[in-house]
Structures are given as structure tokens and as C-alpha cells.
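Q: Please design a sequence for this.
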């Protein structure tokens, strides 16, 4: 864990103050978070369903990413009545639902520009 007085921590706080985009990218950034949100929106809302959809993610990383998305109120856990052991479904909050069209638009942008295609000015 880095110190709050470190240059990185100071720069991060500054960037978050001048533009909310930086805060948003911190919340959904990383290798798996956007795909997890998208997968949950498509109905893959249990741990094992997410593992099946994202076979290369480790259990530990998936668990950590789910906790982080829950901490940021993008998802929440809904208990499954009668499930043994105690099962949960991951559901999108309204904040998470608002994120899905943005992720789709970023995906489309990536299809057009992220593959090294020439950008015309």
C-alpha cells in the first residue's frame, strides 16, 4: 500500500479533482472489470457462470474484482433463497446499469480505432 504523501498519491488526487473521468477510469479500469460488468448485464450473474464466461480469470482475481465493483456500488449481491450453500447472484445497481451503454460504446470505439487503424483528422 502506498503512502498518502507519496508523489503518486498526490498526483492521483490532483487528477481526480480536475476531471471526473480519471475517477471513472479508476473504478472500471483494469483487465477484467468492464467484462465482468458486461457479463453480469448479459445474465452471467453467479460466480461459476462468470468463471465459465471468463475462463482465464483466477478465482482469487474474480473475487477481488467483484468485491471492488461492489465497493463502488456498481454491483450488489442478492441472496438466492433456499440455495445450499448460501448462494448469491450478482446484480447491477442503477449505477452499473448506466455503465453498460458506455461500455458498449467504448467497445465499438475500440473496434474502429484500437486495432491500429488509421485515424483521419
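A: Design:
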Amino acid at each position: 500500500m502506498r503512502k498518502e504523501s507519496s508523489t503518486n498519491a498526490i498526483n492521483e488526487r490532483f487528477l481526480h479533482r480536475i476531471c471526473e473521468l480519471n475517477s471513472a477510469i479508476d473504478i472500471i479500469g483494469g483487465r477484467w472489470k468492464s467484462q465482468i460488468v458486461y457479463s453480469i448485464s448479459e445474465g452471467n450473474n453467479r460466480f461459476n457462470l462468470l468463471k465459465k464466461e471468463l475462463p482465464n480469470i483466477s478465482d482469487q482475481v474474480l473475487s477481488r474484482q467483484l468485491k471492488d465493483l461492489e465497493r463502488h456500488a456498481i454491483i450488489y449481491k442478492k441472496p438466492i433463497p433456499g440455495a445450499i450453500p448460501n448462494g448469491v447472484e450478482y446484480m447491477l445497481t442503477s449505477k452499473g446499469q448506466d455503465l453498460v451503454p458506455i461500455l458498449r460504446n467504448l467497445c465499438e470505439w475500440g473496434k474502429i480505432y484500437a486495432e491500429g487503424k488509421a485515424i483521419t483528422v
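Q: Thanks. Anything notable?
A: The beta strands are 75-80, 87-92. Residues 94-113 form the longest helix (20 residues).
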